[in-house]
Amino acid sequence: MLKAIVNGRILLPESEVLGKALLFDQKIIGIVDESVARAQAEEIIDAQGLYVAPGLVDTHIHGYQGADVSDADPDGVRCMAKGLLENGVTSFLPTSLTVAWETLETVCQQLRQLREESLSDDFEGAEILGMHMEGPFINPSKKGAQNEAYIQPMDPEKVLPHADIIKVLTCAPEMPNGDHFVRVLKDKTDIKLSIGHTGANYDQAMAAFNQGITRSTHTFNAMTPMMHRDPGVVGAALTSDVYCELIPDTFHVNKGLFPLMAKVKGNKLVLITDALRSAGMPDGEYENGGQIFILKGIECRLQDGTIAGSVLRFNHGVRNLRDYASLPLHQAVRAASLNPAESAGVADRKGSLTPGKDADIILMDAACEVHKTIVRGVCKFSK
Hints:
This protein is of the alpha/beta class. It is 26% helix and 26% strand.
């Protein structure tokens, strides 16, 4: 069915468009005059002055509303997919923790099936694009809230059987066999490799980028900091042409750095939530990869005080970036839609309101509260 959204403020990657309509079915048809849209469309959606934006793409999220990807529970992932609609997320990469390898293989198999299931118009949730495997190929010295008991040696042969479902993989390339690990996965798969939970120095990080690592996982967190005599992984990531994840919850990274990240990284800035099962839940104790963590406000910490993931709602992350980096909304939205889609290799059909792409669309107000979420042309959430 041909549909049109009229009377909205359409957000494109580089601009905001007024006085036009968005025409779509399962795919984006184009931006046309409102009179043309009213004449052609079988259904008219009046945006009533709301922003019409591309659906948000979260490429790093572990859990939501009590569920966690590493539980290896398909119903939990379905719960996540449904809950994320209210935050404007139309597609995402369920992200695993460092848990037992057997569990990770089970998660891979489940997500293969769920990815296909999520392509149905009847699926009550955001589309599952694949998975982000965060660990277990990381550095114990920078494990953060990951469980050290399950860290694995850098063995690409373990990953290859699952290259069809893994879209992004976080690893520490300075670990033994790291060069071989990166080279094999770069040559034999389409997996986007991301440096994270890493103790690499600046030179090691730069070498890894030259080898084929194209992303930085939750930049600043669980990596060597930028110092004037050794710029570390942070310095390498900020000065290289790689995508940099940012958790814009104002806790993991001080909001005073948001303008710097936006200016230095531009279209390579990738907003993520890194949300845990406690996202969308009340304060209290929760389990994370076999470890207990405590949620208090926006802070998630293990019992020893180590910072864990976030409870950020993705639309609020967009608002934070807009407000604290003083960006136009279209640019903040791009950091949560097109940029992450590009970083995960799915921008051919996700991330913008470009003709031919999937009709993943959200309507939101000036406070970035979501009023309607449309996935591949089907409205799956309405406030």
